Amino acid sequence: MNTNYTLILGAEGELGKALAREVAKKKCNLILVSTTSVDLQRFSIWLQLKEDVQVEAMKIDLADGEALQSFTEKFRDQYEIRALINNITCDWSVAHGKCISEIAQEDFLTRFRGAALITIGLLPRMKRLSASYIQHIIPFPFKKENSTADMQHSVSKMYAFAKELEEELKETGVSVSMVHPAPMKKIADFEMFDGLTGEINTMSTQLVAMKAVNGMLRGDRLIIPGFRNKIQYFLNRHAASWLKSEEASFGSSMQPSL
Known about the structure:
Elements: E1 5-9, H1 14-25, E2 29-34, H2 41-51, E3 55-59, H3 65-78, E4 81-86, E5 92-93, E6 98-99, H4 108-127, E7 132-137, H5 149-168, E8 174-179, E9 191-193, E10 196-197, H6 205-218, E11 222-223, H7 227-236
Parallel strand pairs: 1-2, 1-4, 2-3, 4-7, 7-8, 8-11
Antiparallel strand pairs: 5-6, 9-10
């Protein structure tokens, strides 16, 4: 990852910033994209000075098709994007005391569609590199009731999109990974078993970010940080059967459905 750029969509939350810090430690330049009203300029300047890498920060409205196209063309033509980390599904803002989706203007499905279009737009250039990476941060709910219907729909689409990308790109140099972060400190407290809460297995966002980035670079397809969380994932995976969306596939062109 020396030189080149890593683009993080949804970098304004606690996990998004932790991912940015972890990538910067590896001396890779960064493009940090806020998908809400949160401004990342101060954070980007601090990170640039601390790690001696180039960091750009910007905001984008994922509902604005024209802005999405302009954004994608700019970074496809002017930058060499070696890694794209999609963190728009769910993250937490300590500054606002809210989930990122609660301070976003768009609904979950609009946010997913925007992120998918950016991914598709950047793919042609990424496929020409000897090695590049796409990573989706997809929250794993131990109980379906912990998520709203809109979020369930969005997450299932993101899961299906990531799986289709993986299949479509398996003969290329683009590695596709999914991270199922377990409950993290300062993020939602999920009930995992009757009488037990997620607090006993929470991990710091920085540790989750480190495992996510290192797993991405190794080429791991599924990353579940924490041994106990892996066990809980396999014990409770029936709780996320809704991830396997029964909707029509996006098709070989990988165009997201509206």
